[in-house]
Design goal:
The complex is a heterodimer of chains A (235) and B (263). Chain A has helices at residues 7-40, 43-74, 78-114, 124-146, 149-179, 184-216, 224-233. Chain A is mainly α. The chains are: A mainly alpha (235), B alpha/beta (263).
Chain lengths: 235, 263
Amino acid sequence: MSEHLSKQFDSELDSIRAHVTRMGGLVEEQLRGALSAFGESDHELSRLIIERDKGVDELEVAIDTACANIVARRQPTAIDLRMVMAVSKTVTDLERIGDEAKKIAKATRKIIERGNGGCLAQVLQVRHMGEQTASMLHEILDAFVRLDFAAAAHIVRRDKEVDQHFRATVRQLITYMMEDPRTISSALDVIFIAKSIERVGDHCKNIAEDVIYIAKGRDVRHLGLKGLVREMDVP
Amino acid sequence: MDPSRGAISELPIKAEVRNFNFHYGEFHALKDVTMPLCERKVTALIGPSGCGKSTLLRSFNRMHDLYAGNRYGGEIILHPDQTNLLDPRVDPIEVRMRLSMVFQKPNPFPKSIYENVIYGQRVRGVTKRSVLDDKAEEALRAAALWGEVKHRLHDMAFALSGGQQQRLCIARALATDPEVLLFDEPTSALDPIVTASIEELIHQLKEKVTILIVTHNMQQAARVSDFTAYMYLGELIEFGYTEEIFIKPRDKRTEDYITGRFG
């Protein structure tokens, strides 16, 4: 995208994009940290993740304020307008991913403190889901920077897979609970963790839709996969 | 917000510019412009200085006839009677009754408020006092000026403030019962409050008339118009619903202009 006549406007937009990238990086770190605290039963790491969530919240407020300032002072249009609108939604999703990471850390802490859930941390499906959503988050942040709508559309498709894994995880945990009722409390916590991971996938999908909106000017929410494919073909 | 709105081609059309070309002597100022004016909607013409938007606006009421060496090509058709406004057999005075112009700077005649408003009626030969009085009140009410001037209709028009003078010019334009109102940057000489009142007036007027407005202020085009046409170097680059032009223009040149990347 070429430059504005107003260099100041360019630098304001650049600054917003840079902040989103920074927030995305921080959220990704939080998510990976929470997943590894769960996988390794790491109590100290869980505590750190919970503590660091404040930083994510602060960035959300700062970026939203910057968006409001641009709207008030610059009256952005076309791609600039779409960027500002979509950033404002994207940071909400990033903040929620941060919240999910915090929830994963809190549930992990409970499982560790209860002391009988070690074996559950080995639930492979959950770890697999975690890996999958963390890589989705990484890819969508990348697609956001490059405004790569094809990569974004790919993320929307991948979210379906996460949903399938979630259902499989729940089935697997139910068998654990039936075999050994003493694991029920911790198994429920693991289900909450799996649900959080599944929600992260949904938020990645929302961000992917924002990226498509910025790049193509098309609102692809609620269209389903077929509708999305159809919209993506329109120039 | 109207997600159900249909294709522009399905809307009632008040006027159509068809393959329109215009020359100022040797200079080819407008190149093959084709666009509709939808009935009782506001269409904004935007573009950088010299793009031909004012030339196009002025062609609608044959202002270019006043200078030798200007040439029209193509047609501007006024519906429903399909009159080609550019046809030399069509009387430009009659054209100007049907398509009234409001200019950038308020330009009342050096006459009373009342005489300004009924000027077009007098040109038409109307002399009956009661008809003229009714017409003056109707036009002043439509221009949202009646309440402010009804007790001093016979004061000089120059005694009014800038915003009032501009509304007086709008009243004068309305008094001939035009089908189309042409606005040539009607608020560029006015302060923001008066500008807002004129924009509000434009919004009310479109219940009755079709409006074409040239504006340098893109935000004004975004605020007041239903359709926007972007012109550049005498060509119509893009025409569409205003929301589409301002959110997702199809042409890169439109996007560069409205986002301020034009250099």
